[in-house]
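Field reference: sequence -> structure
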Amino acid sequence: MQAPMASLPEHQIYIFATSIMAAFFVAAIIRLWLLRRVEEQLLKNKAALEKQVVTQQKDLMMVRQDANAWRSEMQRQFDLFRHMASDQLGVEEKRFNELLSKSQRREYELLTQLDVTKQMSAELPEAKARILHLESLLEKALANQAPAPAPAPESGPSSSSDSDEDGGLPVPEPVSPMPDLSGPSGFMISPPPAPPVEEPEPPAPAPAPLPVPSPFFPPKFAAPPPPPPSPLASILPVTPASLPVLETAPMDDAKFAELEQKLAAAEKKNISLQLVLTKARSRSRTKTKPSPRTRLVKRGLVLQA
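Structure field:
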């Protein structure tokens, strides 16, 4: 190699080296031009991508704002629904308490009426015996008391002659004063009554059986003892007008059965209402509060990604 290069002239060697350098320079310039075009294309793509990123950021901000607004609206609706549900629950509890108080008051009234009816039915035999005794005493007093003879009016010629001589109205006959039967003076004027006849007293009625105590019935109070008979009933004359009229009606067993049926129905209704209230309270205590996402999934309001 050194022999042919040495054989070439010196200026040709420089020309050959310069041509090689010029070829490399042209290739480098072409490469720079190509790289410049690629750079311009990349810059255009970069600007487009930046615009797309800004647009996506704006869209993301709008989506976030919509999500926040939707979340606040759902929270407001949920609070409103919870408030309405609590109000409705309060109204239902108030109505239930009113029904419970009414049923308890009705039950107490029925129990009181039943107790009064039982006491009245227990006092009926004794009252009937007293009435019969008073009637027998009245009949004996009327039979022993003789009616007083009425004074006959005396009309003579003297009275007629006096009225004719005076030329006026006839003089009325003197009237004897009537005894006052409303006070003690009447009894003093009236003839003494006959001595009463001793009669065996009727046997006392058997006491009515006491009702069996029950946890649903209020305590029973014993009826007061009857007042003792007056000692003047056998001494003073008794007139039919002074005796009170006692209307005694036989007790009907159908009324007792109806009252017992109403009482049993009221007790069943009261027990059922208490059970429903207990179940509702236990359900409200044991019921777990679901998460917001669970509520949204159940309502189908979850945003799709």
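Note: Residues 55 and 237 are 123 Å apart (CA to CA).
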